[in-house]
Amino acid sequence: MARTIIVSNRLPVKVQRDSNGDLQYKSSEGGLATGLGSIYKDGDNVWVGWPGLYFKDKNKAQKAEVTEKLTSENMDPVYLSESEIKLFYEGFSNETLWPTFHYFNQYALYKKSYYDAYKKVNQKFCDAVLELANPDDTIWIHDYQLMLVPDMIRQKLPDASIGFFLHIPFPSFEVFRLLPWRRELLDGVLGSDLVGFHTYDDMRHFLSAVSRICFIGNQQGQITKDRRTIMIDSFPIGIDYDKYANSSAAPSTLSKEVKFRTSMGDQKLMLSIDRLDYSKGIAARLEIFDIFLSKYPEYQNKISLIMVVVPSRDTVEKYKNLKEEVDLLVGRINGKYGSMNWTPIHYFYRSFPLDDLSAFYRMADVALVTPMRDGMNLVCKEYVASKLDKKGVLILSEMAGASKELSEALIVNPNDKHQVVDAIYKALTMPVEEQEKHMAFMQKAIKKFDIHHWVKLFLDRLNSVKEQQKVMGTK
Ligand code: GDG
């Protein structure tokens, strides 16, 4: 029977060692894991990926234990060595591709040793898939860490159904062309039958790169390479709407909200939640809050910013520097405006369980989501889904993929700090009926186009592309 094989850098379960060296298995709460959960756990389907830790040779027994446990739960682990984690993951993925694709190309490092490791690890993932795959299986590969895998598989399984989805933006041709390995990356992705992006603009940029670098044109998103047709399209990812709406109504969330509210007193609350990343605009957001408090002094003592920064990639230099910058800015603003009974910024450098997160979403009068660049951004969608009483205002960067769907939010350019400052003022003074109207509109869209809808849409489309290839004899 045909199976679905999901391939991503990380498995939906993270394996960690505790302080005694014992193994802990932590399920990912991320949207992708939820959306694809019902698929990879079904029948013989399987999820191929890295479990998040590495083993020294002396730990062979532990490695075997991890493999057995993950295999019994429909996962197939790909193990990476310490140097592969450094060169492939921290290196090419996060110091070359990530900055380039987020228009921070001045941060990008172009090192041959990084690319060589990337190619080697992509081959490792390909080999893991080939060990499992039958010719009629559907293979769905995710994200920028694995761009070479589709074509590597295609070379061995010419008839396979291969889908690829990019979770981050695809940059304009003028930025993408800076990469020394631009052609290899495009050829890698074009091993797919269906290539998906979050937005129409990402898709357009990809098609333009294919046209300028590979000299292949397209007809309404369809291209032909080596007599094979490939479809390129946008599939904006959704969230597990019911999970966030239900969590917002849960008794544990309500009691946390009461507890937090009591300790913060009667004031307006603004929320910011991100992984630590320069693409998320965290430092600029702090500067914006500083300008807001000085431009609208009547809000001093009357508004606090709850800022959650989730530790991420802290072994990469740029991320270490950003952490220091954020620490300094928070200290400076709290020192400048704070009083005995008011702290302007409540800053948390850690992650929280879902009921805490839901309590934050419920409490926030305003969500300030101002990335410099973001593939989609799920935090803004989760905020909307959590607002059961429909009161609250979303301020959203036009650089986030989500802004294309959430046009009822206050849309801002994060580089225009004064525009964002005025948007905060507008949000805080917005009549309740207007808040409810905008929120209801956004909730309707996010509920309809949720993560389950997204998974089905992509896989159905891949299926129909394959059918079409058969009919046209262009497989
Ligand atoms: C990539 C793309 C695209 C955050 N803090 C906590 C917590 N979170 C969860 C949020 C949300 C997720 O992390 C972050 O998702 P984003 O979409 O905002 O950002 P990336 O991690 O950069 O994701 C992005 C996404 O892929 C999907 O395609 O939207 O553009 O960069 O779900 O809720 N969760 C918990 N505690 C926290 O403290 N439990």
Automatic annotation (TrEMBL):
One of its GO terms (molecular function) is trehalose-phosphatase activity. Pathway: Glycan biosynthesis; trehalose biosynthesis. It catalyses: D-glucose 6-phosphate + UDP-alpha-D-glucose = alpha,alpha-trehalose 6-phosphate + UDP + H(+). GO terms for cellular component: cytosol. Its EC number is 2.4.1.15. Keywords: Glycosyltransferase, Transferase. The keyword Glycosyltransferase applies. One of its GO terms (biological process) is trehalose biosynthetic process. The keyword Transferase applies. Homotetramer. In the C-terminal section; belongs to the trehalose phosphatase family. This is Alpha,alpha-trehalose-phosphate synthase. It comes from Fulvivirga sediminis. The chain holds residues 1 to 475 of 729 of the full protein.
